[in-house]
Amino acid sequence: MSAESRSDALRDRFLRYVRVDTQSDESSSTNPSTLKQLDLLRMLQAELISIGCTDVVLDQFGYLSATVPATISDANSVPVVGFLAHVDTSPEITGTGVTPIVWRNYNGEVLSLPGDPSQKIDPRDSPELLDVIGHDLITSDGTTLLGADDKAGVAEIVTAAAYLLAHPEIPHGTLRLAFTPDEEIGRGTDHFDVAAFGADLAYTMDGSTAGTIEWETFCADSAVVEIRGRNVHPGYAKGKLVNSLKLAASLIDRLPKDRLSPETTEGREGYLHPVHIDGSVEQTRIKFIVRDFTRQGLLDAEDLLRQLAADLMSEEPRCRIDVIIQESYRNMGEILAQRMDIITKAEEAIRRAGLKPKQEPIRGGTDGARLTFAGLPTPNLFAGGHNFHSKREWVSVQDMDRAVETIVQLAQVWCGA
Ligand SMILES: [Zn+2]
C-alpha cells in the first residue's frame, strides 16, 4: 500500500462513516442509547474482519473490539496497546443526512457551505485553517454536523490497522482496538470491560489539532439545587406565599459575574455553570455543572454554591434549599503523571509522523479519564477535526493521515523499534 493509496482509503472510509447517522440520545435509557449507532458498528465489524483483524466482537452494549496480532515473536515482553474512538455524534446538532464535501487544495479563503450559505468557515474564527493551506478539507454541506468528532478517529484507527495488517514486516506487539457508543452523552465507558479488553494502556483518538496530546482533564461534578417554596392561592397569599422561582433567580444572580463561568474563563480556570432550570412556585430545581483542574478548586466552587444557598435560607427561613452534589469524573492527570512514559512515547510517535508534539489540558472530559481511573491509563491524541458539535466542523485529510502515521509509529515505539 503506497502512502497515496493509504490516504485515499482513509478519506473514503471517513466519507462513508459520516454518512451513517449515529447521533446519541441523552433521554434514552437503552444501551447503546440509539439503535442507529449499531448501523455503523456492524459496518465496522464486517470491515475489521475483512482487513484481517482477529477477535472481532460486538457485544450486547454496543462495544466493538478487535485485535491486530503482534508481528514480533516475543510479544509477551511488550505492553498490549489499545486505540479507541467513539462512533456516536453530538445530540446538539442533527446528524441525519450528512452530505460531506471535499474541498481540494484549500487556498485560505472563507468557505461558504452550499446547503446553508450562512454557515461560513472563516480563518478569522478558525485560525488553524491557515496551517492547512494546500490540504484537502472535508466539511458538511452546512445543514448538519460533519461528525469528524469522532469518525475521524474511527477512520484513522481502521486505516492504521489495515496498513499494519498489510505490512507484517513492521514490528509491533499486540494491538487492541475499541469502537464505543454514547461518548457524547457521558456514557461511553459505562459498560466497557477493561479486563476483557486486555490492554496495558490505551489512547483515545478524539482530540483536535494535529500534534496534540491531552493527558489532563477537568475534575467534574454536577450539582442540583432544590428550592422548596410555599404555594398559596395568589388571591389570598399575602404574607404566606414563598415563590421558589424568585429564590432561584436570586441565587443565579448572586453567582460571580467576572469569574467562575465558562464565558469568563480559559486555560486552567474552572467554573460553576447553571445549565438547566425547571420549576413552579412551589418547587424549583437548578442544575449546575462544576469544573476545575484540581479537586480543591472543585470543592471551593461547591462551597460557594452551598454558601449562596445558606444565605438565601437565612434571608427567607420559610424556604428550604438542598444542594446535591454528584461526582462526574476526575482529572486523569493525577494518575498519568505517574505514567509519563505513555506520554513521552506518544510524543516520539508524533515527531516521527512529522509533527511537533504539543501537550494541552482538556477543558472537558474524555472517555479516557474514566478508563484511566478504572485501571486503563488512556490519554487522548489528536484526530484532526475542528469546530466540534457545530455545522461548521471541518477536518483536513492530511492531518487525519498524520494521525494514522502516529498510530503506526506508536505501535513500533512501544516494542522498542
Ligand atoms: Zn469526541
Structure in words:
- This protein has 417 residues and is α+β, with helices and mostly antiparallel strands.
- The protein has 2 domains: 3-217 and 331-413, Aminopeptidase (3-Layer(aba) Sandwich); 219-329, Alpha-Beta Plaits.
- It contains 10 helices and 18 strands.
- It has an 8-stranded mixed beta sheet with strand order 1-2-8-3-9-16-10-15, sandwiched between helices. Strands 4-7-18-17 form a 4-stranded antiparallel beta sheet. It has a 4-stranded antiparallel beta sheet with strand order 12-13-11-14, with helices on one face.
- Helix 1 (3-18) runs antiparallel to helix 3 (148-166), helix 2 runs parallel beside helix 3 (148-166) and helix 8 (340-352) packs across helix 10 (397-413).
- The protein starts with a helix and ends with a helix.
- Bound molecules: zinc ion.
Question: How many strands, which pairing sense, and closed or not: the largest β-sheet?
Answer: 8 strands, mixed
Number of extended strands: 18
CATH architecture of the largest domain: 3-Layer(aba) Sandwich
Low-confidence stretches: none
CATH hierarchy class name of the largest domain: Alpha Beta
- The number of domains: 2
**What is the end-to-end distance?**
21 Å
The gross shape turns out to be globular
* Backbone structural class: alpha+beta
Ligand species: zinc ion
Helix content: 25-40%
In CATH, the homologous superfamily of the largest domain goes by the name: Zn peptidases
Radius of gyration: 24 Å
User: Count of DSSP helices?
Assistant: 10
Strand order of the largest sheet: 1-2-8-3-9-16-10-15
Could you please say which CATH topology of the largest domain applies here?
Aminopeptidase
| N to C succession of SSEs | HHEEEEEEEHEHEEEHEEHEHHEHEEEH
